[in-house]
Amino acid sequence: MMKKKILVLSTGDVNGAYEAMYKVAHILKNMGHEVVLCVRNKTKTDDFIKPYIHIQNVPPPKKNFFIEKVVRKIKAYLPQSEPEKAVQPKLTTDRKYSFLSKDEITENINVDSLLKSVGFIPEYIFTGMTIDFLNSIDLFNIYKATQAKMYNITVDMNHFTGGCHFSWGCEGYVNNCEHCPAILEESQKFVAKDNLERKYDNAQKAFFQIIAGSGLTLEQAKKSKIYKNQEIIYNVNSLIDTTLLNDRNKNIAKAVFSLSDDHFYILTGAQNMEDPRKGFKYLIEALEVLDRQLSEELKKRICILVVSNSINEEFDRIHFKKQKIDYIKDYRLLSLLYQATDVYINTSIEDSGPMMVSEALACGTPVVGFDTGVVTNMVVDDYNGYKIPMKDSQKLAEGIQKIFELDKDRYAAFSKNAVQQVKEFSSYEYAENIFTKILE
């Protein structure tokens, strides 16, 4: 394949959605292409990451003069004594939806400045989460200047909604986002509809294409207003570097963390366990079910390992042994933790990931979790774990118990299958095959 000039766009380069785009850039660079990851906030030291710098002698982004003209006309009819009525109140939203894409009109960057920051005219552009950096009008303007092929990667749902990153079952993005539950004031609900319409128009004019980041967002993108007519939607899943996350040290992993060989370790966690999206109340309910069903002798063998910056106080209700582990940023140490544990539990009820599902599988750790995000297509019943109906604590307990009761040989098969699933559908090599098809 001929070397391509590729621009990857993301607000940042570390943690979650931003880390995913760093991985995309890293994979493309390793494939031999000329790659720049352009970010608003640079944290990593890699040379291929370049921060956006607005050049002072370049005019600021143009305002939408049509909108300004309309606003001026409205103001002309307002009583002079009450000018405050012309001021649009701050958008009030339900926080659980993460309605962050509030303005698809205003330009945020100057394209000339962006291209000078990057250092070349890209042929291909891949974008992830660009909140507080770029919106769809900025991407359209970049397309006009470069004629590059544009691909948006669904690190969450924002690329095809009227502004929310998580829909909580709302399917407004399928049609027009007309009655947005994320916006609390009835008089402001038009914002979601207008945002979706502008995203749709920009996507049509600039020929945006979507790449799914999980089984769930693949299904959502296929029925979205913006991308439902796209012929092929590839799914890159969680982009796992199997040179770092693998099962090669299972024989020593427990010793590294001073864990006992005769205990069954249940791993769970999140940066913020108070986040309702993570559904930890269902894990607590499931563990209470296990507490009632298992004998005292069996219960003594179980220990819950919680990786988080803080543990939910509700965990005090759990009678099993518990151990808190501070959030781990070093992938080699994280890999050893996954390998040291016997099952990873994912109770997310609204999530495009999480990354921990695929990371655990890559390390040979079976997963039990609700059927959403990457669990949807990465966890296979009776193969490498169990997919559980949403919010069903009883079934979740049953799934955990099934892994707990596996004999040594059957557990080894689950572990081997977990690694194989990642190799086939979530590894860097898998992603390279997809990018090769896109860049042909």
Automatic annotation (TrEMBL):
InterPro entries on file: Glyco_trans_1
Keywords carried by this UniProt record: Transferase
Domain Glycosyl transferase family: from-to ranges: 276-419
Any one GO molecular function term: glycosyltransferase activity
Top-level lineage group: Bacteria
Protein name in UniProt: Glycosyltransferase
